[in-house]
């Protein structure tokens, strides 16, 4: 059973290591504290691999380790999961083993645990949908601990190119699979940029600029990037770790934050992307800078105090029923215009404008209810046109310094609704 003050699997250990390394060496007292923190984790989830690799990153500056480092890491060697189901855990165990042996990762090491990119450059962590976060972490460990073999260098180059292409296709550096939009992936990519540059690999400044813009942790947990905080956050998360570990991971790996100016073409920066939130049709609409709107199907969970959901209703006039259709998307990835249709309601995103309106021809004298909630950032300026028999509910979602407004509407007969937001 976890203790009441448990805050994560390795976050406290990482912060202790970083604090000690900044002022000098890592003392025996600090090292024992880190061991104790991992032992407090649930049985079988001690995360020794993360402790070993985090320690190595801070102390491993030469071809061989010091006698003190060898003793400490040797005590962990028997605890590591060398046959874990995921590549990134097997790779952490292999990194520890090869450094204890006084060498670095070779192509044979990487082949033996499946850490080899496919023909497109993707590093597959485990079966299922691709994960940008874990692809990035595997690449990070390769860049940090691999030798200078030409084959390994070509694998790392292809894997970095895959990350950049994925950002261009999906509108965010870490938009796919487990751990998407979380701080861990962005921190890994930031460290990748510096390590890749030290190996004379080309790092596109536009991609790095997007990565660095996501490095602020969400409050209070720190797992999600603050860029993606909103009423959709629970649907957005795909990954088990929502504790404080990822913010500490960022502190350990991101030692420098280079100021980079994004020089990508204007048309690309103004494009829109849709990120699916669940199988029921909820989705997030975003540009390269971050989310601009969301459409959710189910109501928000009121029991989660951190969301601090407050709502009020503005009633114009009208009736209600329960008629709604599945959403349909019309959009090319990264295009400058997007259209989303759900029953009689249409959301259009174009340039710096969002427009939400009711198609009168769909009413035909009947009752129509929007089965989804449209969310926009509170800072968006709006122009509202309502006439006839229309009812609009307005919601407000707050978390830390982030606020979003939600809208849900009903209409009958001659009702007309049009709301425009300037961004």
Structure overview:
- With 423 residues, the chain is α+β, with helices and mostly antiparallel strands.
- It folds into two domains: 11-264; 273-422, no CATH class.
- It contains 14 helices and twelve strands.
- Strands 1, 2, 3, 4, 5, 6, 7, 8, 9, 10, 11 and 12 form a twelve-stranded antiparallel β-sheet that branches.
- Strand 5 (327-330) and strand 6 form a beta hairpin.
- Helix 1 (11-23) runs parallel beside helix 12 (245-253), helix 3 crosses helix 5 (87-100) and helix 4 (67-77) packs across helix 5 (87-100).
Oligomer: single chain
- Kindly state the number of beta strands: 12
The number of distinct structural domains comes to 2
| Separation of the first and last Cα atoms | 47 Å
Rounded Rg: 24 Å
Summarize the structure.
With about 425 residues, this protein is of the alpha+beta class.
């Amino acid at each position: 059973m976890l203790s009441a003050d448990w805050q994560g699997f390795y976050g406290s250990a990482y912060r202790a290591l970083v604090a000690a390394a900044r002022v000098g060496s890592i003392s025996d007292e600090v090292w024992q504290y880190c061991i104790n923190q991992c032992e407090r984790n649930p049985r079988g989830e001690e995360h020794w691999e993360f402790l070993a690799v985090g320690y190595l990153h801070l102390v491993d500056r030469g071809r061989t380790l010091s006698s003190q480092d060898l003793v400490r890491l040797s005590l962990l060697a028997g605890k590591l999961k060398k046959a874990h189901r995921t590549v990134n855990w097997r790779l952490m165990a292999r990194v520890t083993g090869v450094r204890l042996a006084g060498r670095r990762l070779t192509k044979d090491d990487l082949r033996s645990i499946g850490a080899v990119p496919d023909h497109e450059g993707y590093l597959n962590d485990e079966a299922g949908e691709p994960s940008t976060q874990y692809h990035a972490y595997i690449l990070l460990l390769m860049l940090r601990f691999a030798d200078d073999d030409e084959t390994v260098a070509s694998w790392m180059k292809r894997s970095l190119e895959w990350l950049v292409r994925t950002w261009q296709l999906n509108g965010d550096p870490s938009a796919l699979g487990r751990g998407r939009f979380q701080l861990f992936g962005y921190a890994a990519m930031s460290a990748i940029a510096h390590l890749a540059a030290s190996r004379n690999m080309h790092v596109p400044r536009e991609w790095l600029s997007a990565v660095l813009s996501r490095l602020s942790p969400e409050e209070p947990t720190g797992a999600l990037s603050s860029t993606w905080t909103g009423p959709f956050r629970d649907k957005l998360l795909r990954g088990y770790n929502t504790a404080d570990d990822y913010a500490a991971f960022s502190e350990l790996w991101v030692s420098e934050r280079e100021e980079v100016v994004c020089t990508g073409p204007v048309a690309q920066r103004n494009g829109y992307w849709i990120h699916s939130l669940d199988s029921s049709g909820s989705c997030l609409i975003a540009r390269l800078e971050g989310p601009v709107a969301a459409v959710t199907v189910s109501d928000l969970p009121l029991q989660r105090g951190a969301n601090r959901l407050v709502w009020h209703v503005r009633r114009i006039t009208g009736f209600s029923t329960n008629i709604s259709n599945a959403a349909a998307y019309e959009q090319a990835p990264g295009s400058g215009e997007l259209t989303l249709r759900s029953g009689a309601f249409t959301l259009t995103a174009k340039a710096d404008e969002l427009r939400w309106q009711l198609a009168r021809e769909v009413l035909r004298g009947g009752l129509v209810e929007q089965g989804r909630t449209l969310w926009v950032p509170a800072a968006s300026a709006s122009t509202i046109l309502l006439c006839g028999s229309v009812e609009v509910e307005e919601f407000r979602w707050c978390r830390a310094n982030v606020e979003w407004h939600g809208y849900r509407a009903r209409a009958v007969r001659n009702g007309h609704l049009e709301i425009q937001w300037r961004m």
